[in-house]
Each structure stands twice: as structure tokens, then as C-alpha cells.
Amino acid sequence: MLENRGLEIEDSISEESGDELDPVILQPEFLPETRIIHKKCFDCRKFMTNFAWCQPCETTWFKENYSRWTTGSSVADTFGISKDTDGCFIFVMRFYENGDLNQYIENVKDISWNDKIDLLWGISAGLENIHRSDLYHGNLHGGNVMIEDESISTDGRIADIGIHGLVNVTSNKSYGVIPYIAPEILLGETQSKEADIYSFSVIMWSLAAGKKPFAERAHDIALTVDICNGVRPKEIENIPKCFSDLMKRCWAFNPKQRPTAIELNTTFSNWITDICDNQTPTGINEEFSIAEERRSENFQIQKNASQETHKDAFYTSRFFDFSELRENLNIPILHYNDV
């Protein structure tokens, strides 16, 4: 018998085919908490259907958790789960004519502050629903927020949810869009609700700036080093101070200093009330009123300006291996649960 950090593997005879099964040695980062015996899943005791993947367990988990991430008006409408021609699971979602947030910002240049806060309120509500279910998103970015532009309001709905929340494994491998990945994830921490809040802060910036984050530079190892060293998207002129302060709290280096999704949802709800319904002048509605005046003045100047995107800037999710970054960057891996 071969033992490899939690894996117990030996030659055996398949119950289904009678063929001899070759020993399989998996690298420990793939399944640090899972054991395979005779190429069987340790949990359900059925034979594995793919490398390090158990289809029966995956199917069961999808069925049990489907309602947890598809309920509520602040997530993208999902009709069900199916499979593509390769046998991979896919979500069947509603088609949103306005596309995702990145497309919306590019196509609709004149987005008022009322609409920006309304959008963020909807996104924060969706994030709160996810976190209340004791899940996290794990890959929140502008391409995963769908836009529903109704006659009375513009709503942001979170998409691509469901499979990230149960993962609790530290790995060299990360998945996402670099500008939205929290520094602690780049440095080796596990995905978390706090990392979602960091991603949300970059969405706040993108809406306020009217463009994609870090579009002027390559999304490479140099950018990840800068993010880990505290570099954030450029300061935006003429935005409400309360908005800027909240955004900076959300992208704090220490995850424990970031607000919760509940606090974000409550804050945006209060701001909407102040901006739209409160006839009495307050510090909040005055800040947004001034910001809206300046935005309208600058819109005529900026409406014909196009954002140049670096050829190596990518806004679709990719897999990354940041082990080299962690080995060479002079920043210790912090375990914030102990802070």
C-alpha cells in the first residue's frame, strides 16, 4: 500500500469490469482532506468517475444545495442544472439583455449616482443572501453581475454562484480575475466571505469610475505583487466621501477590518432612502447631490472618451498558480482567524 498525505492507494480489482486498476498518486494540494481507496470515493464508496472527482457526490451536493444559491431577487434567475455535451454541469440562466456589469458600464456612459447606489444595493443584498447561507461566492467580478434595467430601477444580480462555498482548502492555485482577487488569497489564504467583500470594493470602484479596474496595465505577476503591497485602483475625483471611505474599508489589507455584507446592504439601503426619499437635507444626500452635479458636468467631456485596455488585461476568470509569488514576496502569510 502507498500512503501519500491522506491518500491510501493500492492495486485492486474493479467490481464493474474486473480489470486491474493502476495505482494513482495525487499531489497533496488537490485533495488534502479526501482519501481514495481502490480508486473509490472515501465518502460514498463508489468508484471515481474522473481524476480526483466523484460524480455521485457532486450530483448529490448540487441537488441538496441548489436552492441555497438560487433563491432571492438579488441573484440571477436560474432555472435549473443541466449538462453540456462533455458531461460537465451547467447552470441554465435567464438571458439578461443588458449583459453583465462590465458591458453595462461600457455601453451606458451616463449612469447617475442614484442608479449606481441602486445597483450596489442589489449586489450587496445578493451577497448578504449568500453569506447568510454560510457560503461565499469566491469569484465575484464585473462579469458575474447581471444587469436588469427596469422602468423604475436598475438592479444588479449576482451570477456564477454555488460551487465555491464548500471549499476550505489552502492551495497554490487560484481562480478568478486578478484585479478582483483579495491579497490574502494571492498570499495563500483560503477563500472567505471577507474576500468577497474585497471583490465588492473593486465593483464599487468600477461603477464610480465608469471603467474597468487596472485596464491600463497587464494582469500579470507584477500586478499581483503590487496588490499584495497595497496598490489599489486609482483615486477617483468628485465622488462622495462616504462612498470613498466605505470602498476603502472594503479593500483593507486585513480582512477583519472589512465590513460585512449585512453592513453593506444596510448602508446602501439607508443611502437610497436619504437620496431618494428624504426631503430634509442631510450630510449624505448633500454629498451625493454635489457628486451628481459634477458627474453631469463632466459627462459631456468624457462621453466620447474611450478606455484603452492593455492587450494583457483579462476580465474573464482564469486559473493561476501563485506559489512563486508567495515564495519570493517579502510578505508573511497571515492567518487572520488568529488576529
UniProtKB/TrEMBL annotation:
Segments passing through the bilayer: none
Domain Protein kinase: start-end pairs: 1-272
GO molecular function annotations of the record: ATP binding; protein serine/threonine kinase activity
Cited InterPro entries: Kinase-like_dom_sf, Prot_kinase_dom, Ser-Thr/Tyr_kinase_cat_dom, Ser/Thr_Kinases-Pseudokinases
Cited Pfam families: PK_Tyr_Ser-Thr
Gene3D superfamilies listed in its UniProt record: Transferase(Phosphotransferase) domain 1
PANTHER family given in the database record: RECEPTOR-INTERACTING SERINE_THREONINE-PROTEIN KINASE 1, SERINE/THREONINE-PROTEIN KINASE TNNI3K-RELATED
Protein name: 9355_t:CDS:1
Organism: Ambispora gerdemannii
